[in-house]
Write a structure and sequence with these properties.
Rossmann fold; 15 helices; 3 domains; alpha/beta
Length: about 425
């Protein structure tokens, strides 16, 4: 027999924890994160890396903690799920500390940003837009201060060279101040990015013509009668839920996968650069610089200038000291960045990037965006980074249920407002 008082205590505890519908809450959150149907019964060890990360995210959200720490929470989420997560995290009772490179996500969710730069920490009481404005102000002030310090350093260096006998307190103070000025004058300011417009292989009249291509896997129709004639300087974003068939379309366009029906006709002068989500297996005994030099010793810019492999690596935040380290010493994110560089130096005129922003920090993202803005060939991007899409894509292929593709004339924000 159950003690009525014990039963009452248990029921009160269930009420306090809001646990009566706990299982349905678990299923609802997992469903929002794309873990549905047979995936719910699958052993976690049999899930993909992205699915495991979504299960881990669901677990911390279900716990409804007072303080939540998230490291790149938007990686492996599709656009609709990211927008759901933004709303979920905008709770006034939640304290959130997160690392993310998703700038729109920061704008919506963060009310304070902490920046780590050259060993210093800077705090900004606002969202990403506020941070960008105030960081620019800070860098301008720093540049002025460094320039003043350099002028003073030249003057004081002349005085120091005359070897003053530092007997007096004032002279000792001046010598101490000299070393402070020297340190300030030696500050390396972040250099302005040079315009990275790489010379592309000449593109002929025909680029790619997709005519009525369809693809199904079992009963699932992934692509149904898709046609498009790619034009010079097309800048297209490819969007749709996880599993909708984005990678399938890319693989059919590049000839890695045959359509069940329809044709893909690729022009003779079309040179693909294809960055996939599958990590390349680099030879661990090779150095970082060897990986790029295998493809190109030099990179020719559109203005006729030439960058060496080392200079190109430096631009993408691989400093010279790191270029001669073994690939095996790189982190996962650094290997992905190196893989991206290999694609860019191939001098393609049709660039396909499948989730290029995963594992990139904001500094590298800004450099990549600058590179792609000046890229003169065709660009086809799959990305869950809405800021990145808005910045680069002039129209969208939106994958809809049943394998249909909407050709939308505008960027992602235009489409959301549509």
């Amino acid at each position: 027999n159950h003690d009525p008082e014990d039963l009452q205590r248990v029921m009160e505890r269930m009420d306090a924890l809001n646990a009566w519908d706990y299982e349905s809450q678990v299923q609802q959150i997992l469903g929002k994160l794309g873990i549905l149907g047979e995936l719910l019964q699958r052993n976690v060890s049999k899930l993909s890396g992205g699915q495991r990360k979504r299960v881990a995210l669901a677990r911390v959200l279900i716990e409804e903690p007072d303080v939540l720490l998230l490291d790149e929470p938007t990686n492996h989420l599709d656009l609709a799920t990211i927008e759901w997560l933004e709303n979920r995290l905008n709770s006034p009772s939640l304290t959130l500390l997160m690392v993310t490179h998703d700038r729109y996500f920061l704008d919506k969710v963060a009310n304070e940003i902490v920046e780590l730069d050259k060993g210093q920490m800077y705090r900004y009481q606002g969202n990403y837009a506020y941070f960008v404005e105030k960081k620019a102000d800070r860098e301008m002030r720093e540049a002025t201060e460094v320039e003043k310090a350099r002028q003073l350093f030249k003057k004081e260096l002349d005085w120091m060279r005359r070897m003053p006998q530092a007997r007096g307190t004032k002279q000792k103070a001046r010598i101490d101040a000299f070393y402070v000025t020297k340190e300030k004058a030696s500050t390396n300011l972040s250099k302005q990015q040079l315009e990275l417009s790489v010379k592309t292989t000449r593109q002929g009249g025909k680029i790619i013509e997709a005519d009525g291509i369809s693809k199904r896997f079992g009963d699932k129709v992934v692509m149904d009668d898709f046609s498009y004639v790619f034009k010079k300087k097309d800048r297209i974003g490819l969007v749709g839920p996880n599993g909708a068939g984005k990678s399938t379309l890319l693989n059919m366009l590049t000839g890695k996968l045959k359509p069940d029906s329809g044709t893909v006709d690729v022009g003779q002068t079309t040179v693909f650069g294809y960055y996939t989500q599958t990590e390349l297996e680099f030879d661990p005994s090779q150095r970082v610089i060897d990986i790029v030099k295998e493809v190109a010793e030099v990179v020719e810019l559109a203005n006729g200038d030439v960058l060496t492999a080392s200079q190109f690596l430096t631009l993408f935040l691989f400093p010279p000291a790191q270029q001669y380290t073994l690939v095996s010493k790189l982190s996962g994110g650094e290997k992905r960045r190196l893989q991206l560089l290999r694609v860019l130096v191939k001098n393609p005129n049709f660039l396909i990037l499948d989730e290029p922003t995963n594992d990139l920090d904001l500094g590298t993202l800004n450099i990549l965006e600058d590179f792609l803005l000046h890229f003169s060939g065709c660009l086809l991007i799959v990305s869950h980074d809405r800021y990145f899409l808005d910045n680069l894509a002039e129209h969208l292929f939106v994958l809809e249920p049943g394998g249909k593709v909407l050709n939308f004339p505008g960027n992602y924000t235009d489409y959301r407002d549509y």
